[in-house]
Amino acid sequence: MRVLDVVDRVVARLAAGQVEVEVDRATGDVTVVRHVTVSDVGKALNPAQVRGQDEGAAIMGLGHTLMERLILDEAGRIRNLGAIDYRIPTSMDLPLRVESAVVENGDGPGPYGAKGMSEGTLLPVAPAVAAAVRDATGVVIRELPLSPERVWTALQAAEGAAGPR
Questions:
Q1: Which residues contact 155 (CB under 8 A, 6 or more apart)?
Q2: 2 domain residue, yes or no
Q3: Sheet strands side by side (includes 30-40)
Q4: Which residues are catalytic?
Q5: Does any domain span residue 39?
Q6: Are the beta carbons of 59 and 94 closer than 8 angstroms?
Q7: Is 93 part of any domain?
């Protein structure tokens, strides 16, 4: 028994991100200079809303990638519940330049070929930033967040292994 033909279609909503960073080797601070998102939305019924959703998701992804960290005690309770201990991006943490683009090919199951539009551009942020940090420093960091302390520690370890410059 067939309920809907739509069930037979696999709908993929693809998103990609590209990030350019500057890394302060003295402090480990990562500045996102440029952040680009591209999303396959099928058909953007409201292009401004789609761009806003993509850009907002990208900023959420930067928070996850660069600063958000849960600290748990030995019993598994969250120890950093407040705004002082659990950082999220503010206007001061935004990339210097944000660009977003949409791919419209009308292949979605929705009206006029639209696809579900959500925070898909959040997903490529962490690997894009980590790759940009690696490109800028030569150091691979495999754990999030890429906080200044973690980046600085990785840079110091790499310089110690390589010897003085």
A1: 23, 25, 28, 137, 139
A2: no
A3: 15-23, 30-40, 97-103
A4: 119
A5: yes
A6: yes
A7: yes
Q: What is the CATH number of the domain that holds 50?
A: 3.30.365.10
Per-residue model confidence as pLDDT tens digits over 132-163? 999 999 999 999 999 999 999 999 999 887 66
SS (H, E, C) the chain: CCCCHHHHCCCCCCEEEEEEEEECCCCCCEEEEEEEEEEECCCCCCHHHHHHHHHHHHHHHHHHHHCCCCCECCCCCECCCCCCCCCCCCHHHCCCEEEEEEECCCCCCCHHHCCCCCCHHHCCHHHHHHHHHHHHHCCCCCCCCCCHHHHHHHHHHHHHHHCCC
Q: Which residue has the tokens 């942020």?
A: 125
Cβ atoms of 141 and 150 closer than 8 Å: yes
Q: How far is residue 144's CA from residue 160's CA, in Å, rounded to a whole number?
A: 22
What does the pLDDT look like over 60-75, one tens digit per residue?
A: 999 999 999 999 999 9
Looking at residue 11, its pLDDT comes to: 61
Does residue 116 lie in a domain region? yes
User: Could you list the residue range(s) of the whole structural domain that residue 107 is in?
Assistant: 9-162
71: its two tokens: 């600290």
State how many domains the chain has.
Answer: 1
Residue type, 28: G
pTM of the model: 0.85
